Amino acid sequence: RPPHPAGFRARVEDEAEGPTAARDLLHHAVSSVRRRLRVVRQAAGADGGVLAASPAWLELRRLVPDAPVRSRRLGEVSVSPGDVRLANERAVAVAFARAHGTDVHEVPLDVERQLEQVARAPRRAIDPDSPLAQELAETQFIPVTALEKYLVCSAKWFIESRLRYDDADADRSHMVAGDLAHGVLQRIVRDVRLDSEMTAGRIFDLALAAAPEVAAQVDTRRVLDPARIEQIARQSASVLVGELDWSTPDAIEVERWIDSRREDAIFAGPVIEGVEVHGRIDRIDRFGSGVLLHDYKYSSGTPSNNGLVDARKLQLLIYLLAMRAPGHAFEPLGGIYRAITHETPGKPWGTMRDALVEQGIITTRQKAGVHDADTLEEFLDEVTELLAGGIRELRAGVVRPLDHQAQCPTHCRLQTICRVGEEVA
């Protein structure tokens, strides 16, 4: 990665597929790079001899023939995203290259036709009488993940949900690793937390025993090797090892829905601006009438309070709001994020009641994210206002790119087709 040369690799079944794979990797690399990408003209053999011109080089020179060559010996060329913006779809790549004043040669006829079909119309607000606007206005149920995405970037939400865009740059191995960690934790958590005689060694044994079977279910493409599976199992076990000093809950439930339409739901989602926000909770610990919610994250991030709001990580806060309904049977003790790959994975982060000191879940020294009953209510009131504003805009069909690219989510790969910095769409 910049300033060092980035490496992109692909496995091909047949040698004839090599040039195509190289071109695809080039498009992927240039659309992903943040500063500069270096491509060399020649591919060298093990003996140092020159074999042939690099397919990626040929593709780059075809698309950007005027890019300056920077090295006589290797024919190295350096290209930044400002020079040409490529995407996985070649038509989009060509369109953006032309938009940035780059003369693209030898464009296939089918791509030219595609460009004519997708030529942009002038920007205008969504027609209030259009089917899309009517569908949004009549929305009565919104998934919590969709609302989070909308509040992060409504343009990204629109592209992914309405155009059914799949992020081609999604890290498949990271996604599978997260599924595996979730599966291992859900499988062993009751045995671990409801056994007062549990030990750290026994927790690791249970996780390592469960991991292969869970991996067979979630990793059908065999993205993870045995060593990686073992590592993830140990990371998952460490989360529960960190709970050995906690009080034993009266009951534990996993994968429970918050949705009034489902018979198996634990309770209904909160209704905000006439819309019910629904979703699924990873884990619920019951201490008498008190309830502690858990959300597992395969990351090292540790957000709390304002960090949750700023990052739009509102899932657990929304579930806490659901328990504020009149006559609700549960008292919210908090919602905690479990960062599985954090250096102290057992430590709770998020929004918590000070009453959790009695269960040994937090200490009297911990201040971040800890509230008494009154301040928790005030914090949830602020969250409700944020959600209400977002739902009103979503139902009104407001779709706007962010004001500046620095605000974009780091994982977003839609910059090449995004109008970041422009006014409301």
In a nutshell, what does this entry contain?
38% of the residues lie in helices and 15% in strands. With 425 residues, it is of the alpha/beta class. The chain is globular and about 70 Å long.
General description of the model:
The protein is an alpha/beta fold. Among the domains are: about 15-115, no CATH class; about 245-385, no CATH class. Helices cover about 40% and strands about 15% of the residues. The chain has 13 helices and twelve strands. It has helices spanning about 20-30, 55-65, 90-100, 110-115, 130-135, 145-150, 155-160, 170-195, 200-220, 225-240, 305-310, 315-320, 375-395; strands spanning about 35-40, 40-45, 50-55, 75-80, 140-145, 250-260, 270, 275-285, 290-295, 330-340, 350-355, 370. Strands 5, 6, 7, 8, 9, 10, 11 and 12 form an eight-stranded mixed sheet that branches. Strands 1-4 form a two-stranded antiparallel ribbon. β7 and β8 form a beta hairpin. α1 crosses α2 (about 55-65), α3 crosses α4 and α8 (about 170-195) packs across α10. It is globular. The protein starts with 17 loop residues before the first helix and ends in a 30-residue tail after the last helix. Residues about 1-10, about 80-90 and about 120-125 have low confidence and may be disordered.
